[in-house]
Specification:
It is a single chain. With 153 residues, this protein is mainly alpha-helical. 63% of the residues lie in helices and 0% in strands. It is built from seven helices and no strands. α5 packs antiparallel against α6. The longest helix is centred in the N-terminal third of the chain and has 18 residues. The protein starts with 19 loop residues before the first helix and ends with a helix. The mean pLDDT is 89.
């Protein structure tokens, strides 16, 4: 069973010095998780603005977070169709929400080809360690390795 992401501000003193891309990725994940919990399967600007205000997404990364969230949510069916064949006797519905959101985000990042594959995989694993169960990172790693090696995205 997966842990619910901590509902803390995206910004904290210790995170201020963190890589803005990592901070943005975490905010996107949290927004995707919130959408999934509220059964919102499309991008809604008003929903995003509310999220950004509530979680205090820094202005310096807000446009990046919005663009990534939009990219994932507007193409859920596409990402899911690429992830499903790599689940090996699982379905996306069987995965914990945390894992599903991380995989969708990583699939979109792999497809964009703006970040090296190794970085995308490592960042997804770190998100799963932070927000998932003790075993989530192994599942996420295995699925994304297959996805990346199959060049499906």
């Amino acid at each position: 069973m997966s842990k619910k992401p901590k509902s803390k501000s995206v910004r904290s003193p210790s995170e201020a010095a963190r890589d803005p891309r990592r901070l943005a990725r975490e905010a996107v994940f949290q927004f995707l998780y919130q959408c999934e919990m509220e059964k919102i399967y499309f991008f809604s600007d008003s929903h995003f603005q509310s999220f950004a205000q509530h979680t205090q997404v820094p202005d310096s990364i807000k446009s990046s977070v919005k663009a990534q969230a939009e990219q994932v949510l507007n193409r859920l069916t596409y990402w899911d169709s690429h992830l499903e064949p790599n689940l090996l006797q699982w379905s996306l519905e069987r995965l914990a929400t945390v894992e599903r959101c991380i995989l969708r985000l990583a699939a979109a990042e792999l497809d964009a080809k703006q970040t090296p594959t190794k970085v995308v995989l490592n960042e997804a694993i770190e998100l799963s360690k932070k927000f998932g169960t003790a075993e989530s990172h192994k599942l996420v790693n295995g699925i994304l390795n297959r996805l990346a090696s199959d060049k499906l995205v």
